[in-house]
Amino acid sequence: MPDRLLNIAARLKSMEGVEQEIEQHRIRSVVNRAYYAAFLTAREVCEEKGFQGSGSSHERIVDALLRQRSLTTLGNQLNEIKSLRHKADYNWNRPISPRDMHTALKKSRKLIDALKAL
Fold first, then answer.
1. DSSP structural state of residue 21
2. What is the C-alpha to C-alpha distance for residues 85 and 105, in angstroms, rounded to an integer?
3. What does the H/E/C string look like for 58-117?
4. Distance between CA atoms of residues 15 and 8, nearest Å
5. What angle is formed at CA 102 by the lines to CA 98 and CA 107, rounded to 5 degrees?
6. Contact in structure between 103 and 35 (CB atoms under 8 Å)
7. What is the pLDDT of residue 27?
8. Closest by alpha carbon to 61, among 69, 73, 50, 52?
9. Do residues 74 and 38 touch, judged by C-beta distance below 8 A?
10. Among 44, 41, 32, CA closest to 96
11. Which stretches make up the HEPN domain (predicted)?
12. Distance in angstroms (rounded) separating the CA atoms of residues 101 and 28
């Protein structure tokens, strides 16, 4: 029994930091999903409305919104969410904050609602 307890203690010790690492993955995934929800909605609206832009697939959608004088705010919002997604997806050496997660969710919801209202 004491050996078993010591083995359990060693296993538990090896789990140090796991919760923080899992939390970072959760936050990064939320930011990623929030961006893609906004991006895919914007892409669909741009295709339906015939809005054209240039650049890579993601830049093209931002550019298409920016070219519409009345939609520049929406283009800027999508670009801001995209920046958060880049931070979440590519800057693994830096932690991403829960605040970034909440910002991405809030901005994505607002953008999606505005796009659906067009």
1. H
2. 11
3. HHHHHHHHHHCHHHHHHHHHHHHHHHHHHHHHHCCCCCCCHHHHHHHHHHHHHHHHHHHC
4. 11
5. 145
6. no
7. 95
8. 52
9. no
10. 32
11. 14-116
12. 7
The two three-digit tokens of residue 77, written as one number: 């919002």
Q: What is the mean pLDDT of residues 97-104?
A: 97
- Tokens in use for 113? 């609602």
In whole angstroms, what is the distance from residue 116 CA to residue 113 CA? 5
Q: Indicate the DSSP class of residue 56.
A: S
Length of the chain (residues): 118
Encode burial over 1-34: b for 16+ CB neighbours within 10 A, e otherwise: eeeeeeeeeeeeeeeeeeeeeeebeebbebbbeb
| Structure tokens given for 44 | 């669909």
> 75-86: per-residue pLDDT in tens?
999 999 999 999
Residue 7 sits at the vertex; the CA angle it makes with 20 and 22, to the nearest 5 degrees, is 15
Task: Look up residue 46 and give its DSSP letter.
Answer: H
Q: Which residue has the higher pLDDT, 71 or 3?
A: 71
